[in-house]
Write a structure and sequence with these properties.
- The chain has a single domain, classed as Roll (Thiol Ester Dehydrase, Chain A), CATH 3.10.129.10.
- It is an alpha+beta fold.
- Strands 1-3-4-5-2 form a 5-stranded antiparallel sheet.
- The radius of gyration is 17 Å and the shape is globular.
């Protein structure tokens, strides 16, 4: 079935909540960037799987911005949402927040765009349902992800030339 004929299973975001434990921190008692990146990658991948009912692997992380640190004892809320698709790929915008246990007030600490490719059991790319923006904000995110993908493909072509 061509991707344009498949319907997404869910366009709802995926949210993970974790606590920052001592083993997750560096000498400054702040969260290791790699630990945060792992959680963000997981949220993005699960969002893709929920969207398409496919297995996905990460192919690119782009426009990742670390805004503020998370500290030992903080709660982390990591949300991934599909914002773009092409024939075999999906892009999630992933946002990470710290949350106070006392007030549950959220503060953004990191954002990025994670690109994944859908694969079959032989690790070959397979088609995915297409994300269709339904409002201005979704269209802005789709356009941004499309631009990121175009730049990524241009860089790949430059390396192969």
């Amino acid at each position: 079935m061509p991707p344009q004929d498949m319907e997404p299973y869910s366009v709802e975001p995926v949210t993970l909540i974790e606590e920052v434990f001592p083993q997750d921190t560096n000498a400054y008692d702040t969260l290791f960037g790699g630990r945060l990146l792992s959680l963000m990658d997981k949220a993005g991948g699960i969002a893709c799987a929920k969207f398409a009912h496919r297995e996905f692997v990460t192919i690119s992380i782009d426009t990742l911005t670390f805004i503020a640190p998370a500290r030992q004892g903080d709660l982390l809320e990591v949300t991934g949402q599909v914002v773009y698709t092409s024939s075999h790929t999906a892009c999630t915008k992933v946002s990470a927040y710290t949350m106070s246990k006392a007030t549950w007030e959220k503060k953004i600490i990191c954002e990025g765009y994670f690109f994944f490719v859908a694969i079959d059991s032989m690790m070959r790319p397979i088609p995915v349902p297409q994300f269709v923006p339904s409002n201005d904000e979704e269209q802005r995110e789709w356009d941004k992800a499309n631009d990121i993908r175009a730049n990524m493909l241009a860089r790949k072509n430059d390396r192969e030339a």
